[in-house]
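Q: Sequence in, structure out?
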Amino acid sequence: MPQTEPPTQENSLILAIDPSIQSLGYALGATGKKNPTFFEAGVIKISSRHAKYHVRGLHMAMNIIHILPPTSTVDVVIETQTNWFTHRGMASKDNEAIQKLYYTTGCLVTHLAICPSVRRIFGVSPNQWKGQLPKKVMIDRATHLLELQNKRLIPQTPHDTYEAVMILEYANQHLNTKNQNKKLELIHERNIGATQFVPVEVAGMLTDMAGTSG
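A: Exactly. Output:
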């Protein structure tokens, strides 16, 4: 999908992310009254299966940051797995793949949180944005949304990208609304355009024993 010019200040940028252990689907767009305006969508793949999971999260974040317009701020909405203490979470909490996905997603969020372009990061579970929607139906809906704007994804695009498109659509419906906190979980927030630095005083306390007076 070709890139489009960033939106005006009247619109808010949204970056939707669907992470997995080996790849990351993403969609970038701007809020709209009915549907978001889609600018870019794609997938980031991690080639090495042996890379540590914090390294995977770092490389995913570094590559996704390059997609963001340097002069704009963006709200990130990332798919996070169902809570460990739900019925489904308890059944799969010992699953190694689920643990790796939690770890990779956490590292990704940590690195995105220090990006100057990122204003807020929200989490949304699969149950929230798609429920029991079959994969084919989800792909068809994402394709229709893009076709409304005369855009399409190239053949053989991974389903992660289609999911990111639908997460962006979900975020467009619920960001900046009265029921936002019920639909999206705020993970990170900071003031627009500036990182908040806390004044710190550093005083060395270690000295040679010979230099101390009894």
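The domain at 13-211 is CATH 3.30.420.10 (Nucleotidyltransferase; domain 5).
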